[in-house]
Amino acid sequence: MIEHSSKISKQGERTKSHLKQAFIALVNEKGYSHVTVTDMIKRAKYNRTTFYLYYHDKQCLAEELQFEMFARIKEKSISKYEKGKTINITDMGPTSFELTHFIFDNQAFFNLYLKNDTIPGLYKDLPLAIYEVLEESFILSPVNKKDINHAAHKLYMAHGTAGLIMNWIKTGYSLSADEMSQQLINILQSFAKEFSVVSKRSLK
């Protein structure tokens, strides 16, 4: 995934945010392949010159949005935990998973996962981001003597978690963010009793 790191003014950041919001709304309405630069600037109420000041084309905007949201998924998955700490899963509560609240607050973007005609490669991002967090940041202590820290098990956990979240999105967020967090905690308790935080990368 391409990283976009050039620094721009606060006004520029606001402009880019407005263009991304317009893009997300349009993809939800008509599909990625049917969205044009003209559509975006009309929706965001900017001119073509402004768009090309920040982006070469639609794909460039989509890649930047995808990169930013991938990083935010990872950040929100670990933001509640400090490096070196051990967390007893029985002590966790609905507010222990900030990721579910982030998804709930950004429904327009995460609804793009339901589209057949969506940002290319988007479908793989949620499980991949969760897997990278598990692999990079957490050591799990099992409820039995089985090894649950090998890559295959963490990959299984990542896809299972992403699958539950996708089902939540498909049902129109029928559970609150707190209820979804508690459901994930209950599943985690079935095979792990605690976890240690071994790293916490800055994603800013």
UniProtKB/TrEMBL annotation:
Annotated PANTHER family: ACREF/ENVCD OPERON REPRESSOR-RELATED, TETR-FAMILY TRANSCRIPTIONAL REGULATOR
InterPro entries: Homeodomain-like_sf, HTH-type_Tx_Regulator, HTH_TetR, TetR_C_Firmicutes
Keyword entries, A-Z: DNA-binding, Repressor
Molecular function terms, GO-annotated: DNA binding
Protein known as: TetR/AcrR family transcriptional regulator
DNA-binding region per UniProt: 36-55
Stretches assigned to the HTH tetR-type domain: 13-73
Database matches in Pfam families: TetR_C_8, TetR_N
The keyword Repressor is assigned to this record: yes
SUPFAM superfamilies for this protein: Homeodomain-like
Keyword Repressor: yes
Domain of life of the source: Bacteria
